[in-house]
TrEMBL record:
Primary location class: membrane
GO cellular component, one term: plasma membrane
Species in which this protein is naturally found: Aeromicrobium endophyticum
Pfam short name (any one): MFS_1
Limits of the Major facilitator superfamily (MFS) profile domain: 27-437
Protein name: MFS transporter
Organism placement in taxonomy: Bacteria, Bacillati, Actinomycetota, Actinomycetes, Propionibacteriales
SUPFAM superfamilies in the cross-refs: MFS general substrate transporter
Amino acid sequence: MTDMAESDRTLLHDIPDSLYRKVAWRILPVVGMGYFIAIIDRTNIGLAKLEMSADIGLSAGAYGLGAGIFFIFYCLFEPFSNLIMEKVGARVWITRILATWGVVTVATGFVQNTGQFYVARILLGIAEAGFYPGMVFYLALWFPRLRLTRALSLMVIASPLASMSAGPVSGWMIETFHQAGSLQGWQWMFIIQGIPAVLLAAVFFLTMSNAPQDAPWLVSSEKEALRKAVTVSREDRAGQSLGLRLKDAICKPHVWLLGVLLGTNYLGVYAVIFWLPTIIADEGIKDVGTVGWLSAIPWGCAVVATVIAGRVGDRSQNHSRLAFASMTLASLGLAASVLLDGGLVMTLVSLSCAAAFLLASAPMIWTIANVRLADAAGAAAGIALINSIASIGSFLGPYLLGLGRDLAGSDTVPMVAIAVVGLAGGFLALRVGHDNKALDSRAVTS
């Protein structure tokens, strides 16, 4: 254990758990709900595809491209979005993000052809750009690094919770509102599911603060205690960080390395998210409602895995090893889903393993990144660039599966390739973790 970790632990012992609970209960429900809605609104096309494909003439390849193209524009606009947030504050900028993506989601319910579907996905990517890395940066302003993994895991858990609940709810909407008011069920699904983001925008603007020092619900001593704890976590290696602004972050090899690492995770996550309903339907399940319920099973497993991972990560501080183990097990699950012949049961078991460990590794990877991006001034740019690089994996995951289906009529080759990349990501996590330890050692020596 390094001297810096000891200084972090000393400050943690000086701050009562009641203060962290107070902060967590005030911030995490709103942040988590925002991410919950984001996951639903960016991935609800997975179940809608089962009916909208015939209505708008959408092929498997076109669907995969549309699912993934969201991330290209999300990636392009993300760094600029986070830099704006750093200037105007999270309260105003996150409110803008929530409101605009809600409006775009509603508009998606009115697309009439493949071209309009692409436009809707592009606009959604632009609207939502910066939300996830913005929330990572935002939480890092409230929680020191020894508390950050647990806070991140409680936010990330919104992803499997959203995926778990979205299937049954979306399936119910598609069946219940079929041809209601001259609209199809999938159209009503988009319209209804876009409204919560707009409502949450108002909640965020009225209830959230930019940082501890701006929070009217904290007393002066609490604000100062949090400021000191977060400052120590971020300034331990300020001499090495050199202020990672966006233009500097682009030239930093470790930022690109962290982006590639996260991208190996996103590759598998979004391949599963966007194609899980179709994979289940291919096993002979034709009822949309049943597909929705079965789609919830892997994400229920992911909820449990993410909670456990957050606690284990904060206690052990071996984030790189835990990320390696999680990515390895996830890769085995992905490969087994197409290589083992066991019907619906084997498919669900394999993809449940993949989903659980892919989601469990995400807070580990983000904690590794936050440890490396030491200074708060540059962290927003570094985090945004890392997530932008990783978003290439988010695009390729669903696109490759769609391409494989169009060209070969099978998921086998692209799914195995995604599994191999995930395994490589596990080894990369070990490498980045080793680099962080070396950086700690040099900082202590100096």
